[in-house]
Amino acid sequence: MPETTNSPVADQVPTPVEAVAAAAAPEQRDAPRSLWNDAWHDLRRKPVFYISSLLILFLIAISLWPSLITSTSPYACDLGKSQMGPANGHPFGFDTQGCDVYARTVYGARASVAVGIFTTLGATILGSVLGGLAGFYGGWWDAILSRISDIFFGIPILLGGVVFLSVIKGGSITTVVTFMVLLGWPQIARIARGAVITAKQQDYVQAARALGASSSRMLLRHIAPNALAPVIVVATIALGTYISLEATLSFLGVGLKPPTVSWGIDISQASTMIRNAPHMLLWPAGALSVTVLAFIMLGDAVRDALDPKLR
């Protein structure tokens, strides 16, 4: 009776399950990633992204719920403690009016972050819509928008803010955001216009047009997702700039006004007391610098992830 032996050739023959898995493995391994998946993969490897994101989340948290880290009201003042240094329960000292500098620094984040976020959202939406339509349709619409944006570009935003906000009395967050959106949208519109013009010349858009896709479908389905990357990068970096601009306008006395608690207002009031009470200027100015730096760091990380030339 012949003996049965294990043949090496038989051992190398894959089972049907192994054959299917082996055939599917290369496809899964080599599956192409989209731009956004690729960008997220790069962001997860950047420490700067995590540091800036944690700082921004912390700032948003204390803007919404300042009572999480302080129980003192920014309006509770005692003139008997005017310009006093740090004390028990008051680590940042007191300002000229005897108000707690720590509480005012915490509550000041609300106005600055709100102005930065709402201005960025408004300018991005308005600029993306107008610039995207101009780049897609071209013609007289593009010519009119280009001339209008050139007019706004010719107005220095700081000088325009001094003139505009000096005429319109109020000094509320809504007023400051409206002004900054009016002078901030042309930059986003120009970026969006260029991105749409570049995207609509790609082969996949030409193929969609040849297949009879409508203009709205091509714009929303094929062009907009591929033209958003540069807009998001510019908007993220601009957010920190808007926060700095709000503080500058408030420092000059034409931005936010009391009783609103703002870092710019506190810096303006403390600037004349820098020799006698430097702590009044140090903490709100430091908070402003860290906030602007966090948004700029996030914008740089997003730019590096979304720009293939920088990889």
UniProtKB/TrEMBL annotation:
SUPFAM superfamilies, per the entry: MetI-like (SSF161098)
PROSITE patterns (alphabetical): ABC_TM1 (PS50928)
Record bears the keyword Membrane: yes
Listed InterPro entries: BP-dependent_transpt_permease, MetI-like, MetI-like_sf, OppC_N
Location(s) in or outside the cell: Cell membrane
Residues annotated as transmembrane: 48-65, 113-137, 157-183, 227-245, 281-302
Domain of life: Bacteria
Pfam families attached to this UniProt entry: BPD_transp_1, OppC_N
Domain ABC transmembrane type-1: 109-299
Gene3D superfamilies: MetI-like
Membrane topology: Multi-pass membrane protein
The UniProt record lists the keyword Transport: yes
Swiss-Prot/TrEMBL keywords: Cell membrane, Membrane, Transmembrane, Transmembrane helix, Transport
Signal peptide range in chain numbering: none
Predominant localisation class: membrane
Family assignment from sequence similarity: Belongs to the binding-protein-dependent transport system permease family.
The name this protein goes by in its record: ABC transporter permease
Species this protein is from: Streptantibioticus ferralitis
